[in-house]
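Thought: the user asked what PDZ domain-containing protein looks like in 3D. I have the sequence; next I should run the structure tool and report back without guessing.
Action: structure_tool
Action Input:
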Amino acid sequence: MHKKSKIIAVIVAVFVIIGLVWLVRPLDGYIESPGEADDLSQFVKIDGKNDTSKGRYNITSVYLSRANGFSYLQTKINPHMSYAKSEDVMGGQSSEVFNEVQNFYMQSAIANAEQVAFRKANQEITATYRGIYVLSVSDTSHFKKSIKVGDTITAVDGHHYENSDGFIKYLANKKKGVRVTVDYLRNGKKGQTSGDTIKLPSSKSSEYPNGRSGIGIVLTDNVAVSTSRKIAVDPGKIGGPSGGLMFTLQMYDQLTGDKLSKNRNISGTGTMNVNGYVGEIGGIDKKVIAAKEAGSTVFFAPYIAPTKEILKYEEQHKTNYQLARDTAKKYAPSIKVIPVETFQDAVNYLETGKIIKTTDKVK
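Observation:
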C-alpha cells in the first residue's frame, strides 16, 4: 500500500509539472486586451503649445502580449481578453517589421488628420504626395524579391498619382500576367523593377466584388505635409491607423480655440482618409473598455451600414458600431456610443449633441 501511494504521488507530481510547464510555455499567438485611452493633448503641439483646455480627446488602443498557457486560459473567463494566432496578428512578419509597418500606418494617419483638420479650420496646408508605402509583399507577388517593406512606390509604367486610389485603379482592371514597371525609393535612392500583375482575392469592398488585379502589396500613403501654423505630433509608441479620427478632432479643436470638447472626456477610434471619411478598425470592444477606465462619457465608433455580406467578415459578425454599442450597453453603460461615417458627423455631434440618422438594419 505504501509503495502504491508513492507511485500515485509520482504520477500526480509529473502531471503537475507538465501542467506548470504548459502554463508558462509561450504559445504561437498573442493575447489582445484593453489598452489605454491616452490624452492626445500630450502628443500634439500647435505653435509650440500643448492643448490646455479642460476637455480631452483620447486615442484608444489594444494591448498585445505574447500568449502562454496561463494567459490563454484567462481568455476563457475574461470577456475582454481574446487569443489570436501569430499569423493573424503579424501576417507572417517579424516583430521588427510589424512595428515598422505600424509606424508607417501612424505617420499616414497623422498626415491625413492634419489635412482634414487644417482644411476644415480654413488654415493653410500643402500636401505633397510622395507615393505608396509598401507594408507587405505577398508570397504570390512577382515583386517578392525586388520590392521590400518600407519602399515607397512612386510610379507604375511611368504614371504617378496623387493618392493610392489612382495606383489601385490603374492596375485593377488589367488582365493577370500583364508586365508592369515600378519605380520606387529605398532609403532615399531611386530604383526600378518589372513584374507581372496577379489576380487579387475579393474582399468586403463593394467596388471590386469579384476581385481585381494588382502587384500583390499592402500599402498606405506616404505624404509630406507643410502647414501655415507649426504643428508637431509625437505619437510615442502608439502605432497603426486607427487613431486618425481622434487625432483630427484634437487638431481641429486646438486650431479653432477649443470650443468643441466642452469639458467632456471623449474617446473613440477609426481611420481617417483625406476626404474626411472614417474607416473601421479592429478590437473596438476592447477600446470601449479602455475608454471606460479613463472616465469617458462619449465614444465615437466608425459606422457602415450592415449587410449580410459585410457581417460575414466582421469581428464577432458585428460592424464596429454594433460591437461598440453592445459592449458599452453591457459593460460601460455610462458611455454613449456615437456612430460616425465622417469627421463632420463627429463635429456635428459635439456641437449639437445630435446623432446623424443611421439605419442599423441588416440589408
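Thought: the tool returned a structure. Summarizing for the user.
Final Answer: Structure for PDZ domain-containing protein predicted. Residues 87 and 93 are 8 Å apart (CA to CA). The longest strand covers residues 26-39.
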